[in-house]
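To: structure subgroup
Subject: Chain for Friday's discussion

All,

I'm putting the inputs and outputs inline so they're searchable in the archive.
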Amino acid sequence: MLDAQPHQTAGDAATPKPFRISVPEDVLKDLRQRLARTRWPDEAPGEPWKFGTDLTYLKSLCAYWQNQYDWRRHETELNRFRQFKIPLGGIELHFIHEIGEGTNPRPLLLTHGWPGSFYEYHKLIRRLTHPSQFGGRAEEAFTVVVPSMPGYGFSFVANQPRFGINEIADTLNTLMTEGLGYRKFATHGHDWGSFVATRLGYAHADCIEGIHITLLAVPRRPSSKPPRTAEEQRFHRQLENWLAEETGYSRIMGTKPQTLAYAVTDSPVGLAAWILEKFRTWSDCAGDLDAHFGRDVLLTNIMLYWVTGAIGSTFWPYYARLHEPWIVPEGATVSVPTGYAEYPREILTPPRSMVESFYSDIRRWTRMPTGGHFPALEAPDALAAEIRSFFSSLR
């Protein structure tokens, strides 16, 4: 179901309409043909992955993609979730809506980031909707809503409006409160999803029961104040390395997103290379993507960008971040109850002393034993237990 639907404004939003994924066969045929015609670059000598996605690995993965990967199987698995579309803010927003067990499941919005997709939560959803099947209790259950963020996946058609984090948060708040009728709800997010949760906690605090995040949405610039503690010194070094070595992608997407979009929209190998390098660098995979995630998981996430043509549109939050006001005004705070899970391989992990003035009601701060930037894929059991524990404490 890739055809554009008539756009309506939020005021026209009626009832969510059921949606099933059905990628046309000619899209899959074209993909295989493009993979077969790839013109490969050479590679600079030196350590594999040092200069970007490794050529040998990418050739092997793309051969698997062309000849063995079965999209239809994964399409069928995704269609087991209850999926819908609803017209909001000039787009057709795609989302999963899975009802939790028990008599009073708490509504929970799960938001993803880049270069991920709603698929990142496919292991987590049932662990939250039916916790009694995974070592939890039925009274801890959630009714889970997982949107494709505006501009991502099935929440994209060509030439639709572009959304920054503020607009995404407003749209998802409307989805939860008006589209689905939840007066108050909880939210969890990672990557941009953490920023969306933070913005919701600031701009829509009256609707938010609490936010749980895995990435702290604090400004990423060196402080004018010298570090006071060993933890602050550690973070200062971490931030210096991040700014020097790991921000090229965001500067490109945040300054000239259209130019990059031509390459990664036209070339499946280019798209895969652009995404896979981040999964390897930002995760707790110890250099082995296949063992940590599995090729089918990596490729299914990439496919959601390819089959929808939604990649250039996902760059917009980076552009908005550099050119529009920050999600929380300087000097303001996020005062809703906040839980934070700190993963050892997360890209940035500021100490509590540096964020308490921004998140003013931190109720839970947990250092997780393993995992990185993609915890719902990397360690879903531990993340589900952490989310349940935080929100159970708020009942």
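Points worth raising on Friday:
The beta strands are 17-18, 83-88, 91-98, 106-111, 142-147, 185-189, 208-213, 338-342, 362-367.
Confidence is low (pLDDT under 50) at residues 1-13.

D.
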